[in-house]
Amino acid sequence: MSVKIKNYAGEALEAKDIREGRVPTEKFRPKAKFAWSAGIAMSRFLEELKKGKIIATTCSECGRIMVPPRIYCEKCFKPTDGWTYAKDTGIINTYSVSFLAADARRLKEPIIVAIINLDGASEGMGIIHRIEEVKDWKEVKFGMKVKAVWKPPKEREGAITDIKYFKLVKEE
C-alpha cells in the first residue's frame, strides 16, 4: 500500500526568500585542491601520443594486445606484462554520423565519430576518434581503412587530441 502525502509539514521556500534574506544562509568558497593521476598505463599512453606513437599493453596469458593500454587483462583477469606499439592505421569498426555539434547546434556538414580497430592490436581493440577529409559522409563504411593525422610535434601535449583525426586511405 502506498501513501500519498498531500501536504508537507513546514513552509515552502522560494528563491526570493533566500535572495531577500528571510532564510539563514551561508556562503562558503572552499579552497579545495586535488591531484589526479591517469595511472600507470594511461600515463604512458599519453606520453607516447605526445611522441606520435600509440602504445599498447600485452598479456602473455591470452596473447591479447590492448589499446588503450590496461594494467590487467579483462579477458583472463591477469596483470598485463609487456608493452608494444600499435600502428596509427586501422579499420572502422563502427561509426556515427551526427548533424549536431557538442553544444546541440545544427551542422551543415556532419561530424563522423568512429571506433577504430588499430593495426597491431588484438581484434576489437581500438580507440574512438573523428573521421575527417571525407567528401561525402555516405561513402564511409564499416571495415574501411583509416590513418591517423597527427598534430605537428611542437603542438602535441600528451592527449588523445594529439591525433587531430583519422582519414580514409585507399587500400593498395
List keywords for this structure.
172 residues, five-stranded mixed beta barrel, extended, three-stranded antiparallel beta sheet, mainly beta
Structure write-up:
The protein has 172 residues and is mainly β. The chain has one domain (39-168). Helices cover 10% and strands 33% of the residues. The protein has 2 helices and 8 strands; from the N terminus they run ααββββββββ. The strands form 2 sheets. The protein has a 5-stranded mixed β-barrel. The longest helix is centred in the N-terminal third of the chain and has 12 residues, at 39-50. It starts with 14 loop residues before the first helix and ends with a strand. The mean pLDDT is 92.
What general outline do the C-alpha atoms trace? extended
| Gyration radius from CA atoms, angstroms | 24 Å
From N to C, what is the helix and strand string? HHEEEEEEEE
Q: Note the total helix count.
A: 2
Strand % is 25-35%
What percent of residues adopt helix (DSSP H or I)? under 10%
Strand order of the largest sheet: 4-5-6-8-7
Distance between the termini: 70 Å
The pLDDT mean sits at 92
- How many domains? 1
Structural class: mainly beta
Main sheet, how many strands, which sense, barrel?
5 strands, mixed, barrel
Any low-confidence stretches, pLDDT <50, length ≥5? none
> How many beta strands in the DSSP annotation?
8
